[in-house]
């Protein structure tokens, strides 16, 4: 959340919007049972987004452009995001196709400039 940005430091990613269903799990992942999570990435290189999709479809956008659409899989999946100045907003949208579907986003890491998504 934008309110946490000063506490997290200059390399942090700001999450600017999340659907009410989005929650942070005990192990620090972010679970999206339906809806969206949006924010801004720092433009200091690629960020690897790793996630698990169960019972639905996760759509990933960067700067308004579709980066990938991912269906349910047994193994973790991932996509590399290359933010650029003026093109660094991201949006993750999950659409469930069964009542227990979800997308679970791992903590994002970039070496020393790790990114933690915090949801309140």
Which sequence of strands runs across the widest sheet?
1-4-9-6-7
Structural class: mainly beta
Low-confidence stretches: 1-9
If you average the pLDDT, what whole number results? 81
The number of helical runs is 1
Radius of gyration: 13 Å
What oligomeric state do the depicted chains represent? single chain
What is the makeup of the main sheet? 5 strands, antiparallel
The secondary-structure element order is: HEEEEEEEEEE
Shape annotation: globular
In whole angstroms, the N-to-C terminal distance is 8 Å
Strand content: over 45%
Report the count of strand segments: 10
What percent of the residues sit in helical stretches (DSSP H or I)?
under 10%
Characterise the protein shown here.
This protein has 120 residues and is mainly β. The chain has one helix at 5-8, and strands at 14-18, 23-24, 30-32, 35-40, 47-54, 56-62, 65-71, 77-81, 89-96, 102-105. The strands form two sheets. A five-stranded antiparallel sheet has the order 1-4-9-6-7, with no helix packed on it. Strands 2-3-10-5-8 form a five-stranded antiparallel sheet, with no helix packed on it. It is globular. Mean pLDDT is 81; it is low at 1-9.
Précis, in short:
The protein is 3% helix and 46% strand.
Walk me through the topology.
Elements: H1 5-8, E1 14-18, E2 23-24, E3 30-32, E4 35-40, E5 47-54, E6 56-62, E7 65-71, E8 77-81, E9 89-96, E10 102-105
Antiparallel strand pairs: 1-4, 2-3, 3-10, 4-9, 5-8, 5-10, 6-7, 6-9
